[in-house]
Structures are given as C-alpha cells and as structure tokens.
Amino acid sequence: MNVIGSLLLGILQGLTEFLPVSSSGHLVIAQNIIPNFTQPGVLFDVVLHLATTFAVIIFFRQKIKTILLSDKKYIWLLFVGSIPAALFGIFFSDVLEKMFLDVRATAWQLMLTGILCFMIDKFKDREKLLNAKNSFLIGIAQAISIIPGISRSASTIFTGSFLGINKKYVAEYSFLLSIPAILGANLLQFIKYKDNLEFQSFEYLVGFIAALIFGYLSIKVVLTTLHKRQFKYFGVYCLALGIFVLLFI
C-alpha cells in the first residue's frame, strides 16, 4: 500500500465511521465497483479504527474525565449498552462475513439508514433520562448496525430519540458507546488474523493521522446537523446511493 492509498483510506474511515452513512456499506460497494479492489490488511484496519476511537476520546475528553471520576452510573450504562454488540460479534461473526458479499442487500439497508435519518429530524427533543433498559435497547441498535449498510450513529440516535431521550444526550452516549464496540471488534480481528499481519510504519501513520482528523471533524458535523435538524441530507445521500446500487451494480 502506498502513501496516497493510506491517506485516502484514512479520510474515508474518518468520515464514514461516525457520519450516518455506514462505513461497512461503503466498503461493500467499493468491493463491487472498483476493479481489482483489495481490502487493506487487518493490522491497517485496526490502526484506522484506533484512530477514530482516539477521535472520540479527544472530542469528549472532559465528559470522559467526569464519568471516570464521579459517574459510576454512566459507566454501568455503557457496560449494559455494550452487551448486545459483544454477543452479536462473538456468536454471529460468520454470518456477518457473508453479508459483506451481498451488495444488493447492502443497498436496501443503506436506504433504511436514509429513512432513519429523515425520521430523526422529525423527533422533538424530550428529557427522558437514560436508564439500563434504554441503554440495552440502544445497544441492540448498535449491534444491528454491524450489518453492512446500517449506520451505527443513525440507528442508535434514532432508537434513543424514539425512546424519548434528548438527541444531544443520546448522540454523546452513542459516541462513547462506540469506544468499547470498536476496540472489541478489532481485538477479535487482531486475534483471528494475528499470524498474517504486515506493518508499514509510515503508511500506517499517514492513515492514522487522516482517520483521527477526519473522525474528529465528522463528530462535530454529526452533532451540528443533529442540532439543526439537518440529518435529512444524510438521508438523501443514503437513499440516492442505495437506489444507484440497485439500478447499476
């Protein structure tokens, strides 16, 4: 992999990891439209996901500090919300790998993500508090988003908003919930393919920095568009991309 490839993949990862457009869905589509497309190595994939995880940690550093020092309940809620994705990843990994081969199913799932984005804008902000039950339900939404084409931010924010939780609050919870999910998923990948790892220090560093910067920026975009009720623009994009795939791929 060359430096330009590392840079582009880092930018793509940083943008699609948090914007409600499904990073996995874009990967499936890329596999089907780019000639001789090859996925980046497992270690490079882990490096990029570490970068986006650091983006969340840096962006929410003050909140994370407060949680660690004085909010044990929030830690418990993050644990509860992480359970569904952990179970889903452990017991259904083989099924998930097969889903990455079905581009038409991915297109329909992208269109579903688009509909969720439109619906998120329609919800009024309410002040229901996050509890263990709601955390678990949001965790289920996060687990479902492992399916290519389903966006984690769209599915979790939609679920929380539907349950009556303030959008900004549920968005923060969604981002923080992504930390154990991303780290856990990539730890499983690392363990599974640990004997077939290649390391290219400079190229990986370029990808890491790009994913970190664009991941940080995409978090800001999500929170801003959520506040302004502009998730519909992501909805238009997902619907258009899904229709394009169904018609032409």
Q: In what range is the share of β-strand residues?
A: under 5%
Report the helical percentage: over 70%
| Broad structural category | mainly alpha
Q: Could you give the distance between the termini?
A: 26 Å
Largest sheet: none
Order of helices and strands: HHHHHHHHHHHH
Radius of gyration: 17 Å
> Which spans of ≥5 residues are poorly predicted at pLDDT below 50?
none
Number of helices: 12
**Average pLDDT level:** 91
Keywords for this entry:
single chain, 249 residues, mainly alpha, 12 helices, 79% helix, globular, cell shape, hydrolase, peptidoglycan synthesis
Describe the structure.
By secondary structure, the protein is an all-alpha fold. The protein has helices at 3-18, 23-33, 42-59, 61-70, 72-91, 93-99, 103-122, 132-144, 152-162, 167-192, 201-227, 232-248. It contains twelve helices and no strands. The longest helix has 27 residues, at 201-227. It starts with a helix and ends with a helix. 42% of the residues are buried. The mean pLDDT is 91. This is Undecaprenyl-diphosphatase. It is a multi-pass membrane protein.
